Amino acid sequence: MFIGISALTLDGKGRMTVPARHRDMLLAQAAGRLTLTKSPEGCLMLFGDAQWQEFRAKISQLPMEAQGWKRIYLGHATETEIDATGRVLISPELRAAARIEREIDLIGMGSHFEIWDRATHQSREAAVIEAGMPEAVRNIVV
Q: Residue ranges of the SpoVT-AbrB domain (predicted)?
């Protein structure tokens, strides 16, 4: 399970260094094979191989009326690997889709990661907090 947030900086080629605590797990679980895709939330989603296979199977089963959502998730999917120095290349197309330039937040979401432009993430998080806690969350938070 991937949890926590890491503030990272892309290098000049658009590569992100995966933090060691996550890199070791991704190398063990997925042999470094990863898939990046666009999220309608305004970020990117990063999956290890097994988690991507599960997600892809669910998306592939969506009915025809969800064809646009299939296109968002599967059409933008890009396979990548962790390189020898622990970096992952984020394609220019995906960086543009999430408005990512240099400063990013890598957020563990359990089965996958979200990759956010840092300023966008901070703004979205502030809006969530300002809107108040919904009852569904309040019921599980002690």
A: 5-51, 77-120
Q: What angle do CA 6, 125, 91 make, to 5 degrees?
A: 50
Query: Does the reported pTM lie above 0.90?
Result: yes
Provide the number of structural domains found in the chain: 1
CATH at 120: 3.40.1550.20
Tokens of 21: 């605590």
**Structural domain of 36:** 2-138
Task: Please report which confidence band the pLDDT of residue 99 belongs to, taking 50, 70 and 90 as the band edges.
Answer: very high
Given a contact cutoff of 8 angstroms between Cβ atoms, the answer to whether 9 and 104 are in contact is yes
Q: At what angle do helices 20-30 and 49-60 cross, to 10 degrees?
A: 70
Is the per-residue pLDDT at 129 higher than 90?
Answer: yes
